[in-house]
Amino acid sequence: MIAAAVLTALAMACAVGAWRLTFARWPWRTPRAAILLWQSLGVTWGLASVGALLAYALAPYGGGVVFGLHAYADSALSSGTAQGAVLPHDLPRVAALIAGLTLLGVLVSVLLAAGAQTLLARRRHRVLLSLISREDPGVPGVRVLDHPGATAYCLPGLRSEVVVSAGTLSLLSQDELSAVLAHEAAHARERHDLVLLPFTALTRALPWLGVVRDAHSSVALLVEMAADDRARRYCSARRLATALLRFGTAGTLPAPSGALGAGGEQVMARVNRLVKPGAALPRRFRYGLVTFSVLLSVSAPFLWVYPG
């Protein structure tokens, strides 16, 4: 029962931590470390929530969640007994077992479904791009859409592609265009689509929870800020900020499903951050944040095998 109690407390702490993190502004000063923290909170919450239910249900076996599941399966197959333990027949434990396995199944299935839908949408869009886009000698390695609207996005994958519209080429200066392309290249290089995928899946699984929607929005903004920081290594921050403002005033077209666009929501927050960057967080704070995120991520799996 100790493991069940600790896992319950851990799941609640992750939920409260995620709720508080949605209002914090210090993550903007270190978006990569903050993204790692968000991922750790999400993974730990899922494993702790499932583990708490299973640990309570399988407590009669006294060997932790992993051993309990194995012993339960043996007991079921042997019609009631396995290694001296009996099936947990009381209603609360049976209900907890069903709830835990159902929650695990839902989380895994929505993650797989979100991944499959994203891959399918990208495949369809790649086929469409092969028909309606073209190459331009002025922007080598970039697909150009003959559309007057302004748009720029990255289509991630094993063969990532950066796409811009003809309207974008006429809207931005050469320096501004280089800044936007560096931003999109950062999305492709760091595979930010994989960062967002679990939060997108969680939003589909629990659409009624405001903290889940806020978490997705917060991580999406941090992903854009991380790409902005990477782009700043190759271009002027003010040029990128100007390009974002031009996109905002021109009314950019939304990025297609499965893609990551240069515009998006909360553009002004990114512009203000580029124009007036805050002081960098101390290195030891960032290292401490990374260490905490790693330890938090391994805490739930450890409690799954803890024989308490």
From TrEMBL:
Keyword Protease among UniProt keywords: yes
Cofactor: Zn(2+)
UniProtKB keywords: Hydrolase, Membrane, Metal-binding, Metalloprotease, Protease, Transmembrane, Transmembrane helix, Zinc
Transmembrane segments: 6-23, 35-59, 94-116, 285-306
GO biological process, any: proteolysis
GO molecular function: metal ion binding; metalloendopeptidase activity
Protein name (database record): Zn-dependent protease with chaperone function
Metal-binding listed as a keyword: yes
Cofactor stoichiometry and binding remark: Binds 1 zinc ion per subunit.
Lineage: Bacteria, Bacillati, Actinomycetota, Actinomycetes, Streptosporangiales
Similarity section: Belongs to the peptidase M48 family.
